[in-house]
Specification:
The chain is α/β, with parallel strands linked by helices and about 120 residues long. It has a single domain, classed as Flavin prenyltransferase-like (Rossmann fold). Helices cover about 45% and strands about 25% of the residues. It has helices at about 15-25, 30-40, 50-55, 55-70, 100-115; strands at about 10-15, 45, 70-75, 75-85, 90-95. The strands form 2 sheets. A 3-stranded parallel sheet has the order 1-2-3, with helices on both faces. The chain has a two-stranded antiparallel sheet with strand order 4-5. β4 (about 75-85) and β5 form a beta hairpin. α1 packs across α4. About 20% of the residues are buried.
Length: about 120
């Protein structure tokens, strides 16, 4: 697949639990997951989901699987969340910030270039 060949890396941000599961199980049910399955280049996944979903054991099995396949998963970060119903603020998880994501992509691309030389 040509889409998986021309780039230096693939970045999936935000990465839903559904996409994470598809990548982990090699499902090619859409263009994105088909491209990732064909890719021979760094894949960086940046999850963004409800903290209950993120803490689910099935989601963590998918994270372990994609990491063992050589993909990079950027962990979610602590963040303040506003609860509209109660109007309270509490600590929750959120997608990693842009600086963190760019750093992971930069390291993945640099590492690939060094190993290809």
């Amino acid at each position: 697949m040509a889409l998986a060949a021309w780039a230096d890396a693939i970045l999936i941000a935000p990465c839903t639990a559904n996409t994470l599961s598809s990548v982990a199980h090699g499902r090619c049910d859409n263009l994105l997951t088909a491209t990732v399955t064909c890719a021979e280049l760094p894949v960086v996944l940046v999850p963004n989901m409800n903290s209950r979903m993120w803490s689910n054991p099935a989601v963590h099995r998918c994270v372990e699987t994609v990491r063992s396949d050589g993909h990079i998963v950027v962990d979610m970060e602590d963040s303040l969340a506003y609860e509209f119903g109660t109007r309270e603020t509490h600590l929750d998880l959120a997608m990693a910030g842009p600086e963190v994501v760019v750093d992971h992509v930069r390291r993945a691309v640099t590492s690939r270039r060094v190993s290809a030389s």
